[in-house]
């Protein structure tokens, strides 16, 4: 039976801290190391100070694991997940060397199944809709970019 970690992204959410609290692990310098019973590796939060939050996952699990992000009431939180070498469905790149990017808002439920005994390396960038708009600076006629 897989281990399940369920969470909801709300304002000032800190994934590493929530993960550590759930499994009784310490957080040091925004990093939590997996305990031996789960596997080996770490989850690291990075805050570059420009309205972005990066969450780096680098580990190998001893048992299957499921990350469940519950939907939040707000669509203002945006996430971009960068993942190389894995795909939950048929791979886009048959040789396994491709990468995928998933872009979403916090008001959607997502479930990520992570298999045991496989190197897991992915990064999630979180920001707000307004920060992203300020970075992109779409022109007045860019309805699609603004919505």
Summarize the biggest pleated sheet. 6 strands, antiparallel
What general form does the structure show?
A: elongated
Q: From the helix content, strand content and strand pairing, which structural class follows?
A: mainly beta
Order of helices and strands: EHEEEEEEEEHH
Mean pLDDT: 83
Helix content: 10-25%
Figure out the total of helices. Answer: 3
Specify Rg, calculated over alpha carbons.
16 Å
Write the layout of secondary structure elements.
Blueprint: E1 3-8, H1 15-23, E2 31-33, E3 39-46, E4 53-61, E5 65-70, E6 77-84, E7 99-105, E8 110-114, E9 119-128, H2 129-136, H3 143-146
Parallel strand pairs: 1-5
Antiparallel strand pairs: 2-3, 3-4, 4-9, 5-8, 6-7, 6-9
């Amino acid at each position: 039976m897989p281990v399940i970690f369920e969470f909801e992204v709300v304002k000032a959410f800190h994934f590493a801290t929530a993960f550590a609290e759930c499994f009784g692990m310490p957080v040091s310098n925004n990093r939590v190391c997996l305990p031996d019973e789960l596997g080996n590796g770490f989850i690291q939060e990075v805050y570059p100070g420009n309205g972005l939050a990066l969450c780096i996952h680098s580990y190998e699990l001893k048992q299957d694991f499921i990350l469940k992000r519950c939907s939040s009431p707000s669509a203002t939180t945006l996430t971009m997940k960068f993942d190389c070498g894995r795909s939950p469905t048929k791979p886009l790149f048959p040789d396994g060397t491709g990468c995928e990017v998933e872009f979403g808002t916090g008001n959607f439920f997502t479930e990520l199944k992570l298999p045991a005994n496989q190197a897991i390396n992915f990064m999630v960038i979180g920001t707000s809709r307004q920060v992203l708009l300020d970075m992109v600076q779409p022109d007045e006629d860019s309805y699609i970019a603004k919505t």
